[in-house]
Amino acid sequence: MSISSLSQRLLVTGSLPKLGGHTRAPIRIGFLIPMSGDEQAWGLPGYEGCKIWVDWINTHGGLMVGGRRHKIEMRVHDSAIGPDQTLTAARDMVEKDHIPLIVTLGGNDVAQAIDYLMSRKVLVATLLPSDLSPDRPYLIAPAEVHPLFNVTGIEWLARTQPQAKRVALCSQTDLMGLPSLAVYRAGFEAAKREIVKDIQYSADTKDALGIVKAMMAETPDILCWCSSPPPMVKALTEAAYKLGFEGHILSCTGDNYDRLIARTSTAFMERFVFQFPDFDDPKLADNAFFFRQPKAFFDTYCSRFPGAWGAVSWEYASILDLWHNAVELADSTNSVSVLAAMKRGRRMSHVFGPARWWGEEIFGIDNALVGDWPVVTIRDGKARIEDFVSVLDWLEQNGPLLKRHMEELGQLWDQRLSPDRSAKAASQ
Predict the structure, then answer these.
(1) 359, part of any domain
(2) By CB distance 3.0 to 4.6 Å, which of 86, 150, 180, 274 could disulfide with 254?
(3) Per-residue pLDDT for 292 more than 90?
(4) Any residues with CB less than 8 A from the CB of 212 and at least 6 apart, and which?
């Protein structure tokens, strides 16, 4: 069996014949992702991207397992409703729908559900490697290495804007924000940049103008939004424009940057640096990753879901693609077999090229797929990749520094691990 994924072959060849084999009961994939609230932009666009992927697979007969084809169906639960309801949804996915793979954003709202799923040996994919720990052996981060990839923007700014020395940070105090803050602190220290202001705010804070005023009082050259949710990124950026900031802005995401341009100016947004490209970027055209024709996926997405493209639009689909490839190799949807197929040789390709399973130093387990990541700016009103930077190289050089900052914020796996967590999961 070729290691190339089905969606990859679909895009390379344009079409594939429907293969033989009797169609059996569908295989369902579960999603525990935010479909509402401030984090909706990290859930809904990704689910929409998965609809495209599922349509590709089903149009050509479905998933082949054991010599038989199975259509793929999706089940989704809005994790923003709350952790208790999300735990109930996870139980239903496993006990009623017998789902072999669950995809999640990760973080606070799904922690209980993940622990339950580990007790049932269900393969779970998160976008937050900071969720990983040794007591979660079936939890993987194969698509996004948030917040580790944030060091790429720091490195690029230090190289291209050497005069920008003073940095002001802000970050929300949750499982999305605190690991990100640790990475940015480590990244700026490694780059020999001075952090002149460091603001931590609660996740329900809305006073973006007050936060930016406090940051600008220290005359920074760089404002860093860390990993603030998209609505907060919008509010912070507009506040910086209103207050006349003339330096660079560093953010994890830049969703709906066209709307930010309209609310600020083209020139102002050309000093905005983030991590997620549009997939029609020329620098992706020849990249060897699962969407052999990333523009085709981008165009399809933008046609079906106008104005919805964002940071996660492709990420959950990339997880499904890697999982599909592993299922083909293992000829099984069993979590143990699929995970072994995914981790064969410790190296495999991810979206932006070759990558390696990593993480024991910080997360206690090598379940994060880490490789290169792009640095993105806005030129003439369009997001463009400036460079690819190796996250692995940075980690090899600065691993102890990162570990220190993660420890200071209580974000190492053993600091977050509740002693009775496993017992609770086993009893659920």
Answers:
(1) no
(2) 274
(3) no
(4) 223, 236, 239, 240, 243, 245
